[in-house]
Each structure stands twice: as C-alpha cells, then as structure tokens.
Design a protein that fits this description.
- It contains four helices and seven strands.
- It is of the alpha/beta class.
- The strands form two sheets. The chain has a five-stranded mixed β-sheet with strand order 5-4-3-7-6. Strands 1-2 form a two-stranded parallel ribbon.
- The termini are far apart.
- The mean pLDDT is about 90.
C-alpha cells in the first residue's frame, strides 16, 4: 500500500487500542501456587510498565506498554476476584486442587492436577476445574470409572490415586 493512503494518525496508534482480555464468568478459584503466580505476574508487569513509561517518544515501546497495561488490568481483576481454596482434610474424593492418577482403557497412566483457570497448563498436566476432564473427575473416588467426553471421542478412565 502506498504511504499516500495511510493516515499518520493511524500509524501512531497502531497496536495501542487493544481489546481487553476476556475474564471467565466462572468463580475464580485459585490454589496457593496459583495465587503466588498471579501476584508474581502483577509485580513483573508493573516493573516492565515502569521501565517503558519514560519512553513516550518510542512507538514500539508505547505499543508494548499498551499490551502490558491491558495484561495488568486483567491480572489485577483476577487477583481481586481470587477465591483461595485450601486442600480438604482428607483425600478420599477428587476436589479442586487434587492431583489425580488415572488409567485409561488401554492401561496407560495419566496424571492431572485440577487448578484455577490462570494456573492451568496442559504441558504440566494442570487442568482448569471447569474443563471436561476436571468435571468428569470431581466428586469421584479411587476405583471409580469415569467417562471423559472429548472431541476426539470419549475415553474411559479409572481413578487410581488422589493426592493433595
């Protein structure tokens, strides 16, 4: 596109008018680790913000600042609505914060930890309490058989161990 068709004002504001990050309508349950992660994230974003604030003439810095400020609003909102959930006194039933060892119908073991939305990370086997796998496991006990409804097809799992 020719520079003749680009308004200078548009270039100045490119990347600074970002949509807000969506916040889940579900209650914001957090584990102790999840709360610490949110607090650390808020501190890191605040520190980055302070570094970028003096660079008002640098367009790239202002674009990055817009992203940081948006993320800081999100993290602040999540901290304000955090509901800290303590582990239960016994580990007989799967509840929020549980680490659950299961075995699928082929005998393959899997481990899932049920956490809050912001702490969820499938690479670490941490799943949100609102996810289909967590919903299948919550309120179940060792020896129970559950069906995990997945887009790839249902999977039957037997609960082998529950720990907190």
């Amino acid at each position: 596109m020719s520079r003749g068709f680009v308004k200078e004002d548009d270039l100045e504001h490119a990347g600074t008018d970002l949509p807000e990050r969506p916040i889940s309508a579900l209650p914001n349950y957090v584990t102790n680790n999840g709360l610490v992660q949110l607090e650390q994230n808020a501190k890191a974003l605040s520190a980055e913000r302070l570094i970028l604030l003096p660079l008002k003439d640098d367009q790239a810095a202002m674009q990055k600042l817009a992203v940081i400020e948006r993320d800081l609003r999100y993290v602040s909102a999540r901290l304000n609505t955090a509901i800290l959930s303590a582990p239960p006194l016994n580990n007989e039933m799967v509840l929020f914060g549980a680490t659950v060892a299961v075995e699928d119908e082929a005998g393959k073991p899997h481990i899932f930890t049920i956490v809050g939305d912001d702490e969820a990370d499938i690479k670490l086997n941490k799943v949100s309490w609102g996810s289909p796998i967590a919903k299948a496991l919550i309120k179940q006990k060792v020896g129970d058989i559950v069906v995990w409804s997945r887009p790839a097809g249902n999977m039957t799992l037997e609960i082998i161990k529950i720990s907190y």
